[in-house]
From TrEMBL:
It catalyses: a 4-saturated-(3S)-3-hydroxyacyl-CoA = a (3E)-enoyl-CoA + H2O; a (3S)-3-hydroxyacyl-CoA = a (2E)-enoyl-CoA + H2O. Belongs to the enoyl-CoA hydratase/isomerase family. NCBIfam families: PRK05862.1. This is enoyl-CoA hydratase. Keywords: Fatty acid metabolism, Lipid metabolism, Lyase. The keyword Disulfide bond does not apply. InterPro entries: ClpP/crotonase-like_dom_sf (IPR029045), Enoyl-CoA_hyd/isom_CS (IPR018376), Enoyl-CoA_hydra/iso (IPR001753), Enoyl-CoA_hydra_C (IPR014748). GO terms for biological process: fatty acid beta-oxidation.
C-alpha cells in the first residue's frame, strides 16, 4: 500500500521490511499524517507472518527532526490532553512484536531521538547526531526522552543533553551505549539490511521472545525478569525449531527452520 509520507519495501525471500520516513523537505518531522502512516505500516509488519525484522530509517540528512513544530505550535493544553494529540500513535513503535532496527543517518533529535530509542537496535551512520533540544522550545521531551534515554545512557549524560539541548555525535553516542555500532554513512543501509537478514533468518518464536525478554528487563525487578526469561526459555522446547536447531547442531549440519 503506498503511503503519503513513507516509502516501504518488503523482501519475502529474506523476511526484511524497510520503512523509510520520507519528508526530506521537513527533515522527516513527525507530522500526524506520518505517525498515522507509520502506525499502519507497523501494524502490517506485525500481522504479516513472513516479516522477520523491520528497518526504520530516514533520509541522508535526517532520521527525523522530531515532532512537527509547525503543526503543534498553536495547540493548547486542553486540546493536547482531551484529543490526546500526537501521543495517540507514538508508542506503536515500542509495541512492535517483531525486532526493529533504527538505521540513523543525520539528525535524530527530539521526537526523532525518542523514536529511535523505541527501536531494538540503533545502527548509526558516522554523520548521525542525537539529542533532546525540546527545552529550547519551551517544552521538554514528551515521548520517552527523559525515561528511555536515561536508561540507555545514564542520568548525568541524559540531564546534560535534555537540560541544554546539546546534540551528541555518533562517536559519543557509541561511547555511551546509545547505539550498537557506527558505520560509514554510505554503508548504513547495506549494514542494516545485513543485520536485519541475520535476525530474520532466526527461528521466529525464539527471536520474538528474546526481544520481549530484553525489553522486560527495563520494566521489572531482576528476580521477576529472570523468572520470565526462564519460562520463555522453557516454552521454546515446545517448538519444532528447537528440535531442529539442536538436532542440526548434534548432527553437524545446517538447521532448516520451519517458522522461516
Ligand atoms: N518540525 C517542523 N519542521 C522542521 C523540524 C521540526 N521538528 N525540523 C526541521 N524542520 C524543517 C525546517 O523548519 C526547515 O523547513 P523550511 O525550509 O521550510 O524552513 C527544514 O526542515 C530544514 O531544516 P533546517 O533548515 O532547520 O536544517 P538545518 O540543517 O539548518 O538544521 C536542525 C537542522 C538542527 C535539526 C533544525 O532543523 C532543528 O533545530 N529542528 C528542530 C529540532 C527540534 O527542536 N526538535 C524537537 C521538536 S519537539 C519534539 O520532538 C517533541 C516530541 C514529543 C512527542 C510527544 C508525543 C506524545
Amino acid at each position: 500500500m503506498p503511503y503519503e509520507t513513507l516509502l516501504t519495501e518488503f523482501d519475502e525471500d529474506t523476511g526484511v521490511a524497510v520503512i523509510q520516513m520520507n519528508r526530506p523537505e521537513a527533515l522527516n518531522a513527525l507530522s500526524e499524517a506520518m505517525m498515522n502512516d507509520l502506525t499502519s505500516a507497523l501494524d502490517r509488519c506485525d500481522k504479516e507472518d513472513k516479516v522477520g525484522c523491520v528497518i526504520l530509517t530516514g533520509t541522508k540528512k535526517a532520521f527525523s527532526g522530531g515532532a512537527d513544530i509547525k503543526e503543534i505550535k498553536d495547540k493548547t493544553f486542553p486540546e493536547s490532553y482531551y484529543e490526546d494529540f500526537i501521543s495517540r500513535n507514538w508508542e506503536r513503535t515500542a509495541r512492535l512484536r517483531k525486532p526493529i532496527i533504527a538505521a540513523v543517518a543525520g539528525y535524530a533529535v527530539g521526537g526523532g531521538c525518542e523514536l529511535a530509542l523505541m527501536c531494538d537496535i540503533i545502527l548509526a551512520a558516522d554523520n548521525a547526531k542525537f539529542g533532546q533540544p525540546e527545552v529550547r522550545l519551551g517544552v521538554m521531551p514528551g515521548a520517552g526522552g527523559t525515561q528511555r534515554l536515561a536508561r540507555a545512557i545514564g542520568k548525568s549524560k541524559t540531564m546534560e543533553l535534555c537540560l541544554t539541548g546539546r546534540l551528541m555525535d555518533a562517536a559519543e553516542a557509541e561511547r555511551f551505549g546509545l547505539v550498537s555500532r557506527v558505520v560509514k554513512a554510505e554503508d548504513l543501509m547495506d549494514e542494516a539490511r545485513s543485520l536485519a537478514r541475520t535476525i530474520a533468518s532466526m527461528p521466529m518464536a525464539g527471536a520474538m521472545m528474546t526481544k520481549e525478554a530484553v525489553n522486560y528487563a527495563y520494566e521489572t525487578p531482576l528476580s521477576q525478569g529472570i523468572q520470565f526469561e526462564r519460562r520463555l526459555f522453557q516454552s521454546l522446547f515446545s517448538t519444532a525449531d528447537q528440535k531442529e536447531g539442536m538436532d542440526a547442531y548434534v548432527e553437524k549440519r545446517s538447521a532448516h527452520f520451519r517458522d522461516k
